[in-house]
Amino acid sequence: MTSGIASPMRKGAEGSGSGMAGKIGYALLYIVLIAVAVLQLFPLVWLLFFSLKNNQEVFDLPPLSLPMNPRWENYGKVWSAGNIDVYFVNSVWITIAATALTVIIASLVTFAITRMKWKGSSFVLGLFMVAMMIPVHSTLIPLFSMFNKANLIDNPISLILTYVAFNMPITIMILLGFYYALPKEVEEASVIDGCSVNRMFFRIVLPMTSSVLATTAIINIIYNWNEFIFVNTFISSDEFKTLTVGVQNFIGQYTTDWGAIGATLMISILPILLAFLFLSDRIVEGIAAGSVKG
Amino acid sequence: MNKVMSNKKIIALYVLPALLLILAVVYIPIILTGYYGLTKWNGIGSPDYIGFDNYAALLKDTAFWNSAWHSLLLALFSGLSLILYLAIAMVLASKIKGANLFRKIYLIPMLLSSVAIAQLWLRIYHPTNGILNSLLESIGFDNPPAWLAEPKLVLFALFIPILWQYAGFYILIYYAALKNIPASLEEAAKIDGANALQIAWKIKLPLAMEVIKVTIVLAVVGSLKYFDLIYVMTNGGPNGASEVMASYMYSEAFKSYDFGYGSAVGFFLLVFCLVATWLIRKLTATKDTIQYS
Amino acid sequence: MFKKKWTTLMLTLCLAIIAAGCGNNANNGGADTNGAANGGSNESGNKVTVNFMHLWPEGVSAGQNKIVNQIIEAYQTDNPNVTIKQEVLDNEQYKNKLKVLSASNQLPDVGVTWAAGFMQPYVEGNLFTPVDDLLSGELNGKFVAGTTEAYAMNGKTYALPLEFNIAPVYYNKAIFEQYGLEVPQTYEQFKTVVKTLTDNGVAPIALGNKDRWTGSLWYMYLADRIAGQETLAKAITGEASFTDAGLVKAAEEVQALVDGNAFVKGFNGLSNEEAKSEFLNGKAAMFLMGTWELPNFTTNEDIPQEFRDSVGFFKFPTVDGGKGNIDSWVGGPGVGLFVSENSEVKEEAKKFVEYFVTKWGEQSVTGAGVIPATKVDTATLELPQLYIDLFNEMNKASSITLFADVQMKADAAETHLNQIQALFGKAATPDLFAGEHDKAISAGK
């Protein structure tokens, strides 16, 4: 094997066999990879084009064509439609607060369930699992009346509590698979060293799981960022609403301004795109940090 | 060791915040849903207790069973699609050139909200000037079907965007799981002369097993209570051909003002999820959990 | 140190949760604390806040939104002690939220409602307050006959209508001219028009039946023209059966139109919005829709002038041997304003509604192209011809049948809409269609 392509080949799909067959397989793999990549990028391009059209063009032109006069004014319309800056700030802080709380609390629970010994741990795990099985719409009326009695309606706390509670089960589930696979030696060694449980958790276990933490953080961010049913139900003042509400600004009683909705969606995807690109690299760094300890 | 790891105070400190939150925010609604299911209630005033009438009606409601069947089909397809996602994650997690870039690009669609995805696929499936039918016409299909209007096709036409929407989610989890496998194991196997497929099958797969089991549960439960795209793209139609349990629950509770019946559907959905999860746990149970060593 | 910080964080969280979960019991003392959340400051200087929830967002219902804001501003200037607090949601979310709010008895002081079947549960649950006193006051005689009745139940009126619509068949004059077609007067002529258009490869009718009420319009008109307005009205209220020969014939005619490819391809999977675009871009020749679409055919600058100039309308043609009358329309009031029964500022809310309805009537035609439910003096306004013609038609209408899905109770309305989709999709026979209707309506939900 020549060194140039040897290393990717060994781990590529079917990289054994002779050099020629390997090269063809390798090329095929790349053709497929690139084709899929183009397909996956297509929605973003489509959304951009969509956001530059008016209603007529949205329905008449082929989806992947740019209109004669790109309507950049759609973005102006979105930006001047009032409150978008407030919505934006709310979206950012609510998403960050809810995501951070979820990931940390879920890690604590998962650690206690998978690594510590106590009666009822599997029952508690069961409780968390059942919690992800209820359809959102079943919960709206009870939750509203509960928050109403607690005076938390029209208060972002109601949103954060709901986001944390509803994303907690799925976050725990994802963490679970990773925690089960952590080597036992980690605890043993640190207990012998006289480490407290807290210290072990924060200094050793959390860094070791940073790749899955980044994964769950990405998932939580996406969910929280795009959520709108709870915002609409619990929040009535503009000062606490989030970006997803911005879309509604363009859905009228009898008509809908699709271009402006496209522009809103485009604006609102950028922050999570950045967050995603940043956190996505953490997934890889995680093992590096973990393997030093392990 | 055991003493430290079963310190009650610490356990309480770690578990109680989450547990209390879940009990307050999720369990109260679940219990109330269970109760509403036993009542006749249009959502206004106080509910009238009617015992199991709603459930009795539900058992005979063909529209409900159709929607349940559609949900089960979706769960089945979601479960099967995991194999594909795992394969993609394996390729992305291997050390091929540009894997990092590919990974990022592959996951971008998962950032899109359901609103955007629904609009995109409505344009793809549009009967006359949609992308799909334009393509079919250009390669010589005379009269391509109206995908979202044909009762026989609509459900499967909807499955594609739904599965696609969640692809990123599972690929991301698998990717993290595979990246978590210590490189030393792979190196060792390679020295022993194992090829890529053998490494994937004998080393990566078993070590990612716990994660895979979890994703099966997530995929099945997520599918059983799936709502978003179906509601936006077809509203369960035409004539119930793409109705799923959650959309049926929604239209009963919020459109027909029958919150009691809707709650019964919601509670049934929960029971479906429980049974499915129990089955999956049973079927995938292994004696020992495998650990990296 | 580290430990302490975390303990504090956890404690705070637990407290927050307990506050959320157990606040339930703590608040029990004031059982009657429902009604508007922030209307309570009545005693201190008479400052009142009236919460107003509506569905005219700034971005797209621009005309309506502007009028709403102008009215509110003027009202607040006249009544400096009153603050009107708005909450805007889109149609779909608005209906959901109204439902959730009513379950907790937390309706806004003033809100938007639809007529008849939609508002019935709210009225029966004593959530809306009667506004008959307003009708006998300043607004006496201001409403178009037949509009407030749709909001009346058990002899009381529970909301004041803002809009009034009828549904003509709009058609593209250019297409008709191209194929030498005349506006059909009878259903036979109409079928010839459809046939000519399909033969020439033009989609005759734009219909987005994913939304279902769109197809309902077609059935209702056919039922009205064949079985007569009275039979249809009685069947909807449950006094007569949908198995009436004329009503079944109407269902058969619907399927005959489907068989003749009268509607655009894939209509059962298209939204009204998508179907409308087929008409707006000249691909489909006809479109049966409410008068709320008029701005798109007259003043909307986004739509090419050439197209707007070529839109005309005709009345749904009569059927030979049918009992219907060409001046009988399907339509009715759109949205209206209600005042919450449990509002703490009911009097102020009512005053605001009275003011709002009056001003809305003056401004909505010219400002938003909406036909208000209050009488409009068309002679003093400069309006596009299409509006004037339709105003005249409204005035000489022999009857106006309220949209079936609005008229029926919620559960029956759902059955009706689903059956419409099934009928158009040929998944239900006309007989089954009739039977399902009778079953749902007699169930009385």
TrEMBL record, chain B:
Which InterPro entries does this one have?
MetI-like, MetI-like_sf, UgpAE/MalFG_permease
Q: Where are the transmembrane segments?
A: 12-38, 68-93, 105-125, 153-177, 207-227, 259-280
Report the subcellular localization: Cell membrane
Q: Where is the ABC transmembrane type-1 domain?
A: 68-280
Q: Main location per UniProt?
A: membrane
Transmembrane as UniProt keyword: yes
Q: Which UniProt keywords apply?
A: Cell membrane, Membrane, Transmembrane, Transmembrane helix, Transport
Where, if anywhere, are coiled coils annotated? none
One Pfam family in the UniProt entry? BPD_transp_1
Question: How does the protein's chain sit in the membrane according to the entry?
Answer: Multi-pass membrane protein
Query: What biological-process GO terms show up in the record?
Result: transmembrane transport
Q: Which domain of life is it from?
A: Bacteria
Q: Which PROSITE patterns match?
A: ABC_TM1
Example GO CC term: the record gives: plasma membrane
Asked if the Swiss-Prot or TrEMBL record annotates the protein with the keyword Transmembrane, the reply is yes
| Protein family (similarity comment) | Belongs to the binding-protein-dependent transport system permease family.
Q: What protein name applies here?
A: Sugar ABC transporter permease
Whose protein is this, by species? Paenibacillus soyae
UniProtKB/TrEMBL annotation, chain C:
Secretion signal: which residues?
Answer: 1-26
Q: Which SUPFAM superfamilies match?
A: Periplasmic binding protein-like II
The record's listing under InterPro entries reads: Bact_solute-bd_prot1 (IPR050490), SBP (IPR006059)
Keyword check for Signal, yes or no: yes
Coiled-coil spans are: none
Does the keyword field hold Acyltransferase? no
Q: Keywords of this protein's UniProt record, alphabetized?
A: Signal
- Superkingdom, taxonomy of origin: Bacteria
Q: What is this protein called?
A: Extracellular solute-binding protein
Organism annotation: Paenibacillus soyae
Q: What is the lineage of its organism?
A: Bacteria, Bacillati, Bacillota, Bacilli, Bacillales
